[in-house]
Amino acid sequence: MIDPAHTVWVHQRAGASGPTLLDELLALCGFWDSLAGLRGPVVIKPDLDACEQAPHAGTEALLVEHLIDRLHEHGFTDVAVADARHEDDSWLHNRDPLLVPELTGWRFSTPQGRPYEVFGAAGGERWRAAGLRIAFAKNRTHEEHHFALAVHNLAGLAAPRRGLVEDALQVLREAPPHWCLIDAVTSAHGGAGQRAPRPLATHTLIASPSALLADWAGAARMGLDPYASAVNAAALHAFGLPPHRVEGSLAPYPLWRNVHPLMARSARQRQAAEGVGALAPAWFQAVDRERFALRDFYSDRLNALLAPLVSRVDDNPRAFWTVVTLNLLLARLGGLVTAQHTLFSKDRLRRREAPLLIDPAAYSAADYEAVPDAMAPYEALLAHLPPARNGLRWRHVDGAIVFGNEHVVPVRYEQWVRRVDIARGIQYMNDYIGGATVAVRRDGRGRVTHQAERNLYLQQPNWMVLFGGEVIDVEKLQCIRRAPGRQSIYWRTVASPNGSAVADDGCVEFTRTPEGQVRVRVAGRQHFALPLAFKLFDINLAPALRDPIIEGAYTSFFEGTVANLQAAYEGRDFRIGHDAAADSPRRALPRLLATAAAAVAELLRGRRGGGEPGELGNLGDAVAWLMGTGAGTTAPPTGPQTQATDAQGFRHFSPQPAANDPQERDAAFVAGMAALARDAPDFLQGLADAVHRDLDQLARG
After folding, report:
1. How far apart are CA 531 and CA 463, in angstroms?
2. Which of 206, 350, 426, 556 has the greatest number of beta carbons closer than 10 A?
3. Can you give 14-53 as a three-state secondary structure string?
4. Which run of H or of E encompasses 535?
5. If we measure between CA atoms, which residue out of 38, 125, 98 comes closest to residue 74?
6. Cα separation of 87 and 146, whole Å?
7. H or E, element range at 147
8. Sign of torsion, CA 376 378 384 390?
């Protein structure tokens, strides 16, 4: 028999209003009976990542307000709404709590006259403290993750915010919803995802006590793999999908349009680019400019150029390929900046906080205690290998590289172990850029003996970044042992969130020498994923080329690690990179690059007014072809037209053309670009002067 908590209900009825559908669904799933015994405040988490006022832009206010009325009727009178958004919108005005709901149609009072509170900053704490937690997601496609439903919607409640996947897992672990609803009455679909959502009447509501089951059904109705979203894939791998029952149809919606895989992949690559990824959403997002104006002049100009292209990716193949190409170019631009920093200026890299995705409590004490045993065969092998001139011992074993090296530091062992914490052994490693550690067990003196850790390292060797090598991201179980004259930490890899490592096991050991000094020993077994360029050529076929590369890389790695340990002993900072809070305009190279891109955008943006017939020339023809408008050479008037001055001295204007006429907009867009192109030399010179002034201000601090 299937547990009711493992059931998902999909209710669809064409012609029914949203409130009617909601009443029918709540009756079908036994919602009210399931609340028996629950007490305390109610928190509803809708999807409020809306950039316009429309039924498909986010969870429809009418549905949430109707639910609040029904909750009051069943005795739940303390109901609040959490405005905790998961998409970064700091580049827009009017995005503070209360402003977004007000500007997107929320009335703060139900149809029955019951007021409700909308709160923002403390959303996570109030969600956790609620007696009844209801997630009310929107049925929508997503530019990077293909779909964004209940699990995606929960990420906004995490504190502190660390990353979409990590945030969603944190909320699911610490404060999962009691019920999940998905508003698919008027859905948001389309190949641009949340960047330019398109409405589609799907007349459906989905409900389940399980966020994973609700999303499983929601993805099926879109015709998508439930694992297509990295957020849902991580949650499904972490928690698993229980045996379940589906009440209703999972058949795909007719006429539904999903994000093309190529678009999604290029958008993910763009967003992963450090610096550029944080700026780019402002350029590609379709937004109601009257309600949510862009804060930054350059972003506003780029948005005016690119957002119309994004809105047309389903209708115009040229717009689709242009957006994909721009995504890839921006990703490559960000990659070049990151590669330069990785190779030549590591302090310019941003340190990363990456919380664990695995659950440390899911592993037994025996799992942690067995970690040293897993390294024992490789340590025995290393002990019998002759060291090279640099002291390195290494061999290939089952596709991995087994290596070891040691170094005697001329300081007293007792002083060393007091200043250098063996539990931080991995964080002393060369090129460690971030991660997180969770202590699982301590000894009687409060010292950690078992812990789980996530570690991020730069590409090894660093020049792999030039070939698309991933940052090494691994999650490990660790066992720490302390005895007189010896301390060691062993680790075993259990997961690699980005697939960068098959194995990254090892140990660090401090031992007292007969002279009372400290011997540092590092050993490991590493098998990292190779970039595509190296998969095409098997370097093992050229050992004369391979072996010097391996020996040089591991020698540098060990020497850097020993240098870090010595810096830790001396109390010096040994970490590479800088904290995100330390970012300053001097580090904002992507911003300066965006300024240069804005010059091109402003050049093409155009000015109000039309051109003379036949004046568009090649530029106008190219733009008309790109936009697929077929616009003529004469643009309609786009601003108020002056009329004669009357006897009282007042000047009269004709009404402005309808702002939602696509043909008029396209024609004005094309004509405006050509008009501005005529002034290109003067404009570029003025912009260059402005950029030079900005750089002078940065130099003066």
Report:
1. 11
2. 206
3. CCCCHHHHHHHHHHHCCHHHHCCCCCCCEEEEECCCCCCC
4. helix 532-535
5. 38
6. 15
7. strand 146-148
8. negative
What is the rounded CA–CA span in Å between residue 586 and residue 114? Answer: 51
| Amino acid identity for residue 76 in this structure | F
| Core vs surface per residue 459-496: b (16+ CB within 10 A) or e | bbbbebbeeebbbbbbbbbbbbebeeeebbbbbbbebb
Given this model, what pLDDT does residue 608 score?
A: 37
Please give the angle made by the CA atoms of 295, 297 and 302, to the nearest 5 degrees.
Answer: 105
The per-residue b/e assignment along 585-613, b for 16 or more CB within 10 angstroms, e otherwise, is eebebbbebbbebbbebbbbbbeeebbee
The amino acid present at 239, given as its one-letter code, is: F
What phi and psi, each to the nearest 5 degrees, are found at residue 62?
-60, -40
Can you state the percent helix, strand and coil of the chain, rounding each to 5? Answer: 45, 20, 35
pTM, to two decimals: 0.81
DSSP 8-state class, residue 533: H
Element holding 304 (H helix, E strand):
helix 297-311
Residue 599 has which token pair?
A: 């010059």
pLDDT at 334: 86
Structure confidence by residue, pLDDT tens digits, 206-237: 999 999 999 999 999 999 999 999 999 999 99
Distance, CA of 219 to chain centre: 20
Q: How far apart are CA 224 and CA 219, in angstroms?
A: 5
Distance CA 491, CA 498 (A): 19
What six digits make up the tokens of 548? 């010097």
Contacts of 369 (CB under 8 A, 6+ apart): 450, 479
Nearest to 85 by CA among 59, 120, 135: 120
460-496 pLDDT tens trace: 889 888 888 889 999 999 999 999 999 999 999 999 9
Question: What are the DSSP calls for 192-226, one per residue?
Answer: TGGGS-EEEEEEEEEEES-HHHHHHHHHHHTT--T
Residue 195 contacts residue 287 (beta carbons within 8 Å): no
Distances (CA, A) of 7 to 20, 29, 217, 232, 293: 22, 9, 10, 18, 43
Number of neighbours of residue 353 by Cβ within 10 angstroms: 15
637 vs 569: CA distance, rounded Å: 72
